[in-house]
Structure formats: C-alpha cells, structure tokens
C-alpha cells in the first residue's frame, strides 16, 4: 500500500507495523486530521486479566491518545454473556454475572497503566456494553436492528464459515454475537460520537457489520481498522509461553516473569517487538533489532525494560533486570524469582522432583517435566537432575532450592 498519511496517528500505525486493513484509509485519515476522533476497542470479560495477546491493541489505544484522539475501552459485560465464536472450534463456557464482574474488575487495572482517564477532550472512557445490551427488548431489537442483517452474508464471514466448513456446531446464541457487536458500534456512535472501531484481524467481519448497521440506521459514515495477527518468527501465536498465558495483571504473573518473557524474545522478533510494544523511536528500534551476536541480548534487555516499565513501572523493571543479572551472571538465587512455598505437611512423606517442576510452573505436566529431565534441561541448584524418580524431604528443602528449566526459566522452592 502506497498511501501517505496526513494524520500523526495513521503515520504511527503504518510506520510501526500496527496496520493490517482499513475500511477507508483516506476518509479516516481526513477525519483524524480534522480534530479529536473517539475510537474504541472491545474486550470481553472472559478472564480475570488481559494477556500479552491483547497488548498490541492496548498500545494502539495509547498511540491514539498520544496523537490527540479519544480512546474508548469497551468492556463486554453484555457480550461476554453470549461469547464471540470468531475462529473458535467450540462454544465458550458461559459465565454468570458475578464472574463477569470479577473479570472486568481485574481487567480495569491494566488499562489505567497505559491510558489517561479524565474529562479532557482526549481523556479515555471506560464503558460497559451491558449498559445498553442488558435492557434490550427482544422483539423491538429484531424489528429495528435484526432486519438489517443478511443471514447469507453472515454465513460468508470467514470466522463463521470456517466453523461450518469443519461441520462444528455453531449455536444460535453465538450467531447473535456479531449482531450485538455491530449494535455496540451504533450505540457508541449515538452516545459518544465514536467514529472508529479497531481490533485484531479476526474481528474484520464484526467491524464491517457495525459500519454497515450504523450507516443504515443513523446515516453516519464511520470507519474500521484492524491490526495483524501477531505471531512469533517460529510461527507461534503471540502471548503463550511454556507456562501458559502471559498475563498482564501482576497478581497473576509477577513483574519478573513478565520481564523474563520479553527478555526471551527470539533474535528475529526483537526489532519488530520494539516497534510494537515500546515508544522508542523507530530508527532506534531498527538499530537495536539489527544487532548481532551477543549484542542482541542487550537489545532484548532494552525491550524487556521498556515494556515492563509501561505496565508495572520503572522500579519493577529495574528490580527484574537486577534479579536476572544476579541469577544468570552471578549464579545467585534472586529474591524476585517466582517462588513455590510448601508447608511441612506437604513434604512430610517426601515430594517428587517431577511434582516440584510442575507446581513451580516450570513444566505444564508431569509428562513434560519427565521429558525435560530426560533431555537434560532440568537443574536443581547448579546440578543437572537426572532421576525423574527423585524424592525430596524436609531436610533437602531446609534452605531455598533453585530449580531451572533450560538456561532462562527459574523458580525457587522453599518451606513456609
């Protein structure tokens, strides 16, 4: 694409690699050039924390605000009751109101680290779509909104089509999701003058639906853009580690473990991730990403420090780097390492080394822990673990013990 943007926001998106598709590049660019544009991204409350897979779009909202526009974080208190079927092979488990509220409470803390919520023209808004979805009258909604949707067209969207092509069930409940998301855009346009919906590339069909609906019902010209599906250089979906999802809430993943996730970025991804997840100038990101040999490790430390500072603060980033240097360079224990605390009762009859690797989060299962040991990647202290049948007693754990999975992942085990 050769379009040269006039607005700062569009220029940032294109220069840093955030932009996948846009419904009308020129029209959106002109709207962004004319004054503050309210724009939103929706987040369903399916977990108590957002994870790294959400972070690229949170950075999009941050850049939106930094370039003079108004970000809206829309929490899906209503849509979570239905569940987004996009590119899923099965139906999401349904959550009750209490679980949805608890998840929203957990997610709110993350947004305030990246966005400024205030009453200024560019102050962020945090909204909940239950505000307008919970009170809908079904017959009125069908008559006023449902009549604008073609089932033929809805069946053609890739997110639905892929499910049907595999002959996997798609419930009527889930089929309604895209109508509700489209209605969100209409309501945000009516209530807050919202002109733009953003989301991952898997949301393209849902976004286009909202634009069509708002044009038909309110005769308003609005816009949509998507960010690319982010994969690592080895083809894995961004946001997963060996221990599971990389959560953004500090009580679900410690700042040290979060820092360590970014420090373990592959060489090939370092420059790209610096552009997407930090605010360093693009030229500096490219310079750091092009470093070779051992120097690329320093670029990864810059990445880890910058990203951790944005989410958890500069002090947490400094502490994480200090712990990492102590563990890796000086062989120390590192006070901030993830720690498994065992009671005396739990080790009274001994506890297997396999169980310790699983419970400390260094292995996802007993089978994975045994494979780690068999492959020579497990260490206790600085000694290789060679016997998967090894059992430790209270005496072995009188002092804290450091477990390692490979060279980069560590945990402490101690008695409480």
From TrEMBL:
<dbReference type="InterPro" id="IPR002307">
    <property type="entry name" value="Tyr-tRNA-ligase"/>
</dbReference>
<comment type="similarity">
    <text>Belongs to the class-I aminoacyl-tRNA synthetase family. TyrS type 1 subfamily.</text>
</comment>
<keyword id="KW-0547">Nucleotide-binding</keyword>
<feature type="binding site">
    <location>
        <position position="177"/>
    </location>
    <ligand>
        <name>L-tyrosine</name>
    </ligand>
</feature>
<feature type="binding site">
    <location>
        <position position="40"/>
    </location>
    <ligand>
        <name>L-tyrosine</name>
    </ligand>
</feature>
<dbReference type="GO" id="GO:0042803">
    <property type="term" value="F:protein homodimerization activity"/>
</dbReference>
<keyword id="KW-0963">Cytoplasm</keyword>
<comment type="function">
    <text>Catalyzes the attachment of tyrosine to tRNA(Tyr) in a two-step reaction: tyrosine is first activated by ATP to form Tyr-AMP and then transferred to the acceptor end of tRNA(Tyr).</text>
</comment>
<dbReference type="GO" id="GO:0006437">
    <property type="term" value="P:tyrosyl-tRNA aminoacylation"/>
</dbReference>
<keyword id="KW-0436">Ligase</keyword>
<keyword id="KW-0694">RNA-binding</keyword>
<dbReference type="GO" id="GO:0005524">
    <property type="term" value="F:ATP binding"/>
</dbReference>
<keyword id="KW-0067">ATP-binding</keyword>
<feature type="binding site">
    <location>
        <position position="181"/>
    </location>
    <ligand>
        <name>L-tyrosine</name>
    </ligand>
</feature>
<dbReference type="InterPro" id="IPR002305">
    <property type="entry name" value="aa-tRNA-synth_Ic"/>
</dbReference>
<dbReference type="InterPro" id="IPR024107">
    <property type="entry name" value="Tyr-tRNA-ligase_bac_1"/>
</dbReference>
<dbReference type="GO" id="GO:0003723">
    <property type="term" value="F:RNA binding"/>
</dbReference>
<dbReference type="GO" id="GO:0005829">
    <property type="term" value="C:cytosol"/>
</dbReference>
<keyword id="KW-0030">Aminoacyl-tRNA synthetase</keyword>
<protein>
    <recommendedName>
        <fullName>Tyrosine--tRNA ligase</fullName>
        <ecNumber>6.1.1.1</ecNumber>
    </recommendedName>
</protein>
<keyword id="KW-0648">Protein biosynthesis</keyword>
<dbReference type="InterPro" id="IPR014729">
    <property type="entry name" value="Rossmann-like_a/b/a_fold"/>
</dbReference>
<feature type="short sequence motif" description="'KMSKS' region">
    <location>
        <begin position="237"/>
        <end position="241"/>
    </location>
</feature>
<dbReference type="InterPro" id="IPR036986">
    <property type="entry name" value="S4_RNA-bd_sf"/>
</dbReference>
<feature type="short sequence motif" description="'HIGH' region">
    <location>
        <begin position="45"/>
        <end position="54"/>
    </location>
</feature>
<feature type="binding site">
    <location>
        <position position="240"/>
    </location>
    <ligand>
        <name>ATP</name>
    </ligand>
</feature>
<comment type="subunit">
    <text>Homodimer.</text>
</comment>
<dbReference type="GO" id="GO:0004831">
    <property type="term" value="F:tyrosine-tRNA ligase activity"/>
</dbReference>
<dbReference type="InterPro" id="IPR024088">
    <property type="entry name" value="Tyr-tRNA-ligase_bac-type"/>
</dbReference>
<dbReference type="Pfam" id="PF00579">
    <property type="entry name" value="tRNA-synt_1b"/>
</dbReference>
């Amino acid at each position: 694409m050769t379009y040269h943007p006039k607005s700062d926001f569009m220029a940032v998106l294109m220069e840093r690699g955030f932009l996948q598709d846009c419904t009308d590049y020129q029209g959106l660019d002109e709207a962004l050039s004319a004054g503050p544009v309210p724009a939103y991204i929706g987040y369903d409350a399916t977990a108590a924390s957002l994870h790294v897979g959400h972070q690229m779009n949170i950075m999009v909202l941050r850049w939106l605000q930094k370039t003079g526009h108004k970000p809206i974080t829309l929490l899906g208190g209503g849509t979570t009751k239905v569940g987004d079927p996009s590119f899923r092979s099965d139906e999401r488990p349904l959550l009750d109101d209490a679980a949805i509220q608890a998840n929203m409470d957990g997610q709110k803390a993350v947004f305030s680290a990246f966005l400024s919520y205030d009453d200024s023209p560019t102050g962020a808004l945090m909204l909940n779509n239950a505000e307008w979805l919970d009170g809908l009258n079904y017959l009125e909604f069908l008559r006023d909104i449902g009549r604008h949707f073609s089932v033929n067209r809805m069946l053609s969207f890739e997110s639905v089509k892929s499910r049907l092509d595999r002959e996997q069930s798609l419930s009527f409940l889930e089929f309604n999701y895209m109508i509700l998301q489209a209605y969100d855009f209409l309501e945000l346009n009516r209530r807050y003058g919202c002109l733009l919906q953003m989301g991952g590339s898997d949301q393209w069909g849902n976004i286009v639906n909202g634009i069509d609906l708002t044009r038909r019902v309110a005769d308003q010209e609005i816009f949509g853009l998507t960010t690319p599906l982010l994969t690592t250089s080895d083809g894995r979906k961004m946001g997963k580690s060996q221990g599971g999802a990389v959560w953004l809430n500090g009580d679900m993943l410690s700042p040290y473990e979060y820092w360590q996730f970014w420090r373990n970025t592959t060489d090939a991804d370092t420059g790209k991730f610096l552009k997407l997840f930090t605010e360093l100038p693009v030229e500096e990101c490219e310079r750091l990403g092009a470093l070779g040999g051992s120097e690329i490790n320093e670029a990864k430390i810059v990445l880890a420090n910058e990203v951790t500072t944005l989410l958890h603060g500069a002090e947490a980033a400094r502490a994480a780097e200090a712990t990492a240097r102590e563990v890796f360079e000086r062989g120390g224990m590192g006070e901030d390492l993830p720690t498994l605390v065992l009671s005396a009762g739990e080790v009274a009859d001994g506890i297997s080394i396999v169980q310790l690797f699983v419970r400390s989060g260094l292995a996802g299962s007993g089978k994975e822990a045994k494979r780690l040991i068999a492959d020579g990647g497990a260490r206790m202290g600085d000694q290789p673990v060679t016997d998967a049948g090894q059992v430790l007693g209270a005496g072995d754990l009188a002092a804290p013990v450091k477990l390692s999975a490979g060279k980069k992942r560590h945990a402490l085990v101690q008695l409480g």
